[in-house]
Amino acid sequence: MRKIFLLFCVTSLSIIALLTFINTKSALLLLIFGPLILMGFYDMYQSKKTIRRNFPLLGRLRYVLESIGPEMRQYFIETDLDGKPFNRLQRSLVYQRSKKETDTTPFGTQLDVYSEGYEWINHSIRALPFNKINHEPRVRIGSSQCSKPYDASLFNISAMSYGSLSKNAILALNSGAKMGNFYHNTGEGGISPYHLEPGGDIVWNIGTGYFSCRDADGNFNYDEYAKRAQLDSIKMIEIKFSQGAKPGHGGMLLKEKVTDEIAAIRIVAKGKDVMSPPTHSAFSTPLELMEFVKLLRKGSGGKPIGMKICIGNKSEFIAICKAMVETKTYLDFITVDGGEGGTGAAPQEYSDHVGMPLRDALAFVYDCLVGFDLKKEIKIICSGKIITGFDIIKALSIGADVCNSARGMMFALGCIQALECHTNTCPTGVATQDPDLVKGLVPAEKSVRVARFQHETVKSAVELMASAGLAHPDDVGRDVVSMRIDRTTIKTYAQTYPEPVPGCMLEGHSVPTDMFYFWKKASASQF
Is the pTM of the predicted complex or chain greater than 0.90? Predict the structure, then answer.
C-alpha cells in the first residue's frame, strides 16, 4: 500500500501541475490534496499504529470506527462475522491494557448470569488488601532431578514460531518478555537470532521436526541441540507432542513463508512446504521418552525438561506417568494445550473436533499426576485461549501452576484477526514474511505493549486471588470458581472435578472408577 500511496501522490501532483498550466486557478486543488499527501507521509513514518504505517490514509478509516465509542464497539462485538462473539471483546480488553487505557465497564456485567456455563470467583469476606500482596508472583519449575530450576512468571508467551510470525513480531515479543521478566516460548520453528537478540528468557520448543537440532534427514541431532540448549537465554526445554489447534497433525509452514534465513534456522530446504511429522522419531515408547528426557537434561546442563501435549487418548498419558514411576525419571513440567487453541494454518476439522478442551484436559493431567504421586515433582503449564486475569484463575483453580497465551500476545502486537495468517498478507506485519508489511510493525513500540498487557493481566489475576483471600497461585484450589450448570444448579470446580487421593493410581485396587479402563490399558512399554 505504500507504493500505491506514492503512486497516488505522484499522479495527483502531476495532474494538478498539468491543470495549473492550463488554468492557474486549478492550483487551489493543492488545498485539498496537499493535506492528504502530508497526512499520508505522516502515517508512513509514525511508529505507533501499524495499519497506518502499512496503509497510509486508508488505514485511518479503521481508527475512525474505533473512536466512535462504546456503542459502535458493542455493535461490532454482537455482529462478529467469524461466529465468535467474544473474540473482539477480548481483543478490545487486550488493546486497552496494552495501551494502559481504562478497562472498567459502566452499568455492570453484560453477560447473562443465569445462562448455562456462566462462571464466577467465590470471593471471601477475609479478602486481602491489594497493596499487601505480591503483584509479580513466581513459580519455581524444576523437579528433584533438575539442577537449574527456573522461577517462572504466572503469565507468559505461548509457542509461536519464527516463520509463522515475522522477525519484527518475534523481536517485539522477546523484548517485551525481557522488559516484563517473563518467558517467551519459541514454538517448534527453532531458535532464531530474533529470539536471542533482545535477551528475554526463552523456552525452546522442540517438535517432531527437530528444527534447529536436526540432521539433513530430519532426525534429532544431539550436538546441534547441546550447542543451543546451553545458551544463557534458554531457560527450559519443551518436547512438543501436539498442539491444541491441530493435534496429531504436525506443524506446517507454507513455502511462501520459507525464506533463505528461515530455511537455515530450521535446517530445511527452501521452496517446499515445511511439514513436521505427526510423531517423534527420537523415541517410540514411554520408556524411550524417559531416556530422551535424560539426554535432553544432560545436554542442557540440568535445565528443566518438559513436554507439551493436547490430550487425546487418555491411556497414552497414563502410560507416560507409569514410565516416570517405573524409571524414577521425572519431567519438570507438562504444558497442557486445550483443543480450542488456535493457529494460522490448521484444517477446520482439526480446530473444531480434535483434542480435549483445556478445562477437562487440565483436570485429567492434574488428577493423573496426583494419582501417581508425581505432582510434587512436576509443574503444570496451560494454554488455550488464556487472555484475562479470570482465565488465569480458572486454570489455576483446576490444576495449572503457570499460564501461557498466544492470541492475547498477538492482540498486544496489534493483530486485528484479519484471518490472513496463512496467506503471507497479514496487514499488521505480525504473521507475514513480506518485508513491506513487516516494516510496519515497530518492535520498540509493540514490545512495550506486550510487557504492559502481561503486567496488567497478572495484576488482574493477583487481585482476583486477593479478593478470594488467597496470597499466591499455589493457594488457588478447585473450590475457588463456581459454574452454573443450568438455571437452578451451581457447582464449584471441586464438585465438577473431584480430586483423587494422592497415590491412588500406583495400585490397581484404588484407581478411580472413571480412570480404571485407561489405567488398565496403559503400558510404560508402548503408547
Answer: no
